[in-house]
Every structure is written in structure tokens, then in C-alpha cells.
């Protein structure tokens, strides 16, 4: 393991202990904005190549290579925009909030570096509507950055002036989806767009747009300062670098921690979060959209390959929600679907109607009114291709599908308790999962 200490959180522990926000002068005193000054002396293609070589992948959930995404921008169209996804509405995810609440300039330096690499004209930080305090912190930090010449000045040798603004959302989960974010940024209802065209070609205001997560951009100063090899020395062959990981739920010391990718979830919980309160049963390892890990998957390594190995959608945000053996997974499923049903934008019928029907069926199970046909319908919606998964504009229906599918497959006994018949139209709930 090459991880020798915090990369993104290196200034925060002392600041948090003193309840002191890290201002511009504090940030510069610890080496802040040196990477940005280095970037100003490099060619854009050199910065992009460095980021590609580092193996940096998106930290917002999708895990797409950051440097590769930057290459999708057309070379001859202006203006160009950078939209920073700080919506962070995935349940039990709070890593970006923790980072920006204490050390906002690490994000602003990342934005400035991305601006140089992509010749960005305007950057918009799209912040979750409920983050009131954090929005004020960022606005103050942006003001400081303007005063110090980080923004509002032309890139060397060009007439392109980089401006940066904080844009507050209205509190909708769907705006975390990149095209829903762009719609909201333009002052419209946050409805995801049909792709193509993709944002890199026609994004904000129909112009080329890069969309990056807060944590992704915050990794750039380290990469510019220390090089691609230093970043790749942490993590695994396919999952390079450090990762912010929030741990909550049935653990003794919840919080936001930094480790290299590939750390076993059990080690993260026991070393940093004080261990499980009671006996481990399950966990959402990266927000509810990725599905759940089973009781026998406590040691699952938190990397971008987790989906292939443990029957989940992917790594997601790597923010872990721990559940002990007192947890009723039927109630967990009901609460998750209630969230999705409420947050569906309503644009696509399978998502709008499917999540609503799932919620009604799970309500009946929780209340003891369920019949065999309720489970039959739930299984059909969660498992059958062409019902919900893969039929909608964005991935919200797939997230709903994955959370229900994985809970059903990994915790059938919890559903046996609320369903009288164990066999429903050829679909049998067994100790090993759902067998069709």
C-alpha cells in the first residue's frame, strides 16, 4: 500500500479542530495555487496528457477517465464551459460537502487548472440547494480568488478570460445527472436530455461543456505538483489515487476519511469508523444507486472493479452506509424506493410509474398486507429487461432497479417473512438468492 497520508484532506484536521475555515492566505501558506502557476507555464495538451497518464477517474459515481473526457471538446468552438457537479444529492454521501466546507480553495485551484487545460471561458459551480452554509463559503472563496487574480484574468498568450460563478440548485436529486444539471443551470426544469448530442459538443447554452465532480477537480493540484506516477502509485492498477470515503450508519465513529482506492470495506470501517455497532449485515458502499453488499461481502475492496466482482452497479461515491443485523431489508428497500419515487422527474413513464408501483408494493409488505402477487410484480419490475432498466433517458430507473434487485437477491429471507408463499409464478426465493 503506497498511501502515506491525506492528499485532499491534508489541511482539514487542524482547521476542523480549531473550527477555522481555510482562507486564501492559509491555503497559499501550505503550497496552494503553486500547481496552478505551474499549469500556466504548460501547454494545454501537456496538462491533458498528464491527467490522462495519472489514471484519474471521475469521483462523482461514473468513474469515467477525466483526461479522456477532456479530449472530447471540439478544438474550434467557443465559448467553452466547465460545469462543476456539486449537487451531491446521493443519500448518505457527504464527501464533497466536507471538503468544500473547510478547504474551498482546493476546488477552485482544480477549476483553474482545468480552465487552463481546456481554455475554459466560464466555470459554474452547481451546488446542491440544501447546502446553504457551503454556498456562502464558496462564494467568499471565489471572491478571494478574483481579488488574487486566479479568475478574471486572461490566460497567458490569449485573450480568453476565465470567470467562475457559484450557481445554487433548487434541491432536486435529478440535477445530479449531468444533463439535468445543465438544464437547471440554464434556468429550465431539471429534466435530463436525450444524448447525443453529448455535453462536450453541445452542453451549457448549446456550447462545448465539460462536467466534472468536485473531488475529481480537487485531485488536479496534487497531480500537477507530484506527477502522474505519484498519483498512480496509490490505489490499484485500474483505480488510481486516493479517495474520499464517508462512513455512516451503524458504526461507532462516522465521518469522512481519505484512503487509497482498493482498501477493503472492512478495513475502512474498523480502522477509521470505529467498527460496526453490533454484527455486520449489509452496506451501501457508494450510495443507494449502486445496490447493496451482502453479509458475506464485508471485505469487498472499494475500487472501480467492485461491480464485476460483487454483483453491484459500480463504486459510486464510495460513501459507505453500514447496516447491522437489526436492519429489516424490506424496510430499507421501501425507504429507497420512496426516495426514488419522490425524486423522479416524471419525464419517462417506466421510471415515474415503476418507482411509484414499487413503493406501493413495498408499503404493503412493510405493513403486513402483502400477497404473493406483490412480490411477483416487484420481481418483474426489478429483474425483467424492458420493464424499468435500460428504458429511460437517464439512470435513475436503473438505480431504482439495482437497489431492489440486489436486496432481493442477497436478502431473500427478509422477504419470506412478509410473503406467505415462497414460490411465485416460477420465481423461488432461496437462501442463495432469487432463482428464476
Describe this structure in words.
With 436 residues, the protein is α/β, with parallel strands linked by helices. Helix content is 41%, strand content 13%. It is built from 19 helices and 12 strands. The protein is globular, with a radius of gyration of 22 Å. The two termini are 42 Å apart.
Task: Give the secondary structure arrangement, pairings included.
Blueprint: H1 12-17, H2 24-29, H3 34-40, H4 44-54, H5 66-70, E1 81-86, H6 95-102, H7 104-118, E2 122-127, H8 132-147, E3 163-168, H9 178-185, E4 209-213, H10 214-218, H11 220-226, H12 228-232, E5 242-249, E6 255-260, H13 265-272, E7 280-284, E8 292-293, H14 306-310, E9 320-324, H15 329-343, H16 349-366, H17 372-383, H18 396-410, H19 412-416, E10 423-424, E11 427-430, E12 433-435
Parallel strand pairs: 1-2, 1-4, 2-3, 5-9
Antiparallel strand pairs: 5-6, 7-8, 7-9, 10-11, 11-12
Helix pairs in contact: 3-7, 3-11, 4-7, 6-7, 6-8, 15-16, 15-18, 16-17, 17-18
Amino acid at each position: 500500500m503506497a498511501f502515506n497520508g491525506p492528499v485532499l484532506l491534508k489541511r482539514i484536521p487542524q482547521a476542523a479542530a480549531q473550527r477555522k475555515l481555510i482562507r486564501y492566505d492559509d491555503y497559499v501558506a501550505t503550497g496552494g495555487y503553486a500547481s496552478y502557476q505551474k499549469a500556466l507555464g504548460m501547454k494545454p495538451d501537456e496538462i491533458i496528457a498528464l491527467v490522462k497518464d495519472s489514471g484519474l477517474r471521475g469521483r462523482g459515481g461514473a468513474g469515467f477517465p477525466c483526461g479522456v473526457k477532456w479530449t472530447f471538446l471540439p478544438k474550434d468552438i467557443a465559448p467553452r464551459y466547465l460545469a462543476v457537479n456539486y449537487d451531491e444529492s446521493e443519500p448518505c454521501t457527504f464527501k464533497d460537502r466536507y471538503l468544500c466546507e473547510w478547504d474551498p480553495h482546493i476546488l477552485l485551484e482544480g477549476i483553474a487548472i482545468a480552465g487552463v487545460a481546456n481554455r475554459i471561458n466560464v466555470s459554474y459551480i452547481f451546488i446542491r440547494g440544501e447546502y446553504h452554509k457551503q454556498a456562502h463559503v464558496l462564494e467568499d472563496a471565489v471572491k478571494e480568488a478574483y481579488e488574487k487574480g486566479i479568475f478574471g484574468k486572461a490566460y497567458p498568450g490569449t485573450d480568453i478570460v476565465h470567470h467562475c460563478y457559484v450557481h445554487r440548485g433548487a434541491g432536486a436529486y435529478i440535477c445530479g445527472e449531468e444533463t439535468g444539471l445543465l438544464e437547471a443551470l440554464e434556468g429550465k426544469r431539471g429534466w435530463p436530455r436525450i444524448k447525443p448530442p453529448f455535453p462536450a459538443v453541445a452542453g451549457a447554452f448549446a456550447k462545448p461543456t465539460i462536467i466534472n465532480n468536485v473531488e475529481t477537480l480537487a485531485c488536479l493540484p496534487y497531480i500537477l505538483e507530484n506527477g502522474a506516477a505519484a498519483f498512480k502509485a496509490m490505489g490499484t492498477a485500474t483505480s488510481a489515487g486516493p479517495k474520499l470515503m464517508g462512513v455512516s450508519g451503524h458504526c461507532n465513529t462516522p465521518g469522512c476519511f481519505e484512503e487509497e482506492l482498493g482498501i477493503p470495506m472492512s478495513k475502512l470501517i474498523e480502522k477509521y469508523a470505529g467498527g460496526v455497532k453490533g454484527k455486520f449485515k449489509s452496506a451501501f458502499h457508494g450510495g443507494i444507486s449502486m445496490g447493496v453488499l451482502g453479509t458475506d461481502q464485508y471485505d469487498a475492496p472499494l475500487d472501480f472493479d467492485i461491480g464485476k466482482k460483487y454483483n453491484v452497479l459500480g463504486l459510486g461515491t464510495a460513501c459507505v452506509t453500514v447496516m447491522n443485523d437489526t436492519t429489516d431489508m424490506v424496510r430499507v428497500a421501501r425507504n429507497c424506493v420512496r426516495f426514488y419515487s419522490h425524486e423522479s422527474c416524471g419525464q419517462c413513464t417506466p421510471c415515474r410509474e415503476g418507482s411509484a408501483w414499487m413503493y406501493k408494493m413495498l408499503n404493503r409488505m412493510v405493513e403486513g398486507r402483502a400477497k404473493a402477487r406483490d412480490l411477483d410484480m416487484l420481481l418483474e419490475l426489478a429483474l425483467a429487461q424492458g420493464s424499468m432498466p435500460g428504458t429511460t433517458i437517464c439512470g435513475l430507473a436503473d438505480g431504482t432497479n439495482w437497489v431492489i434487485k440486489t436486496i432481493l437477491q442477497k436478502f431473500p429471507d427478509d422477504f419470506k417473512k412478509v410473503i406467505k408463499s415462497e414460490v411465485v409464478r416460477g420465481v423461488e426465493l432461496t437462501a442463495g438468492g432469487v432463482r428464476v
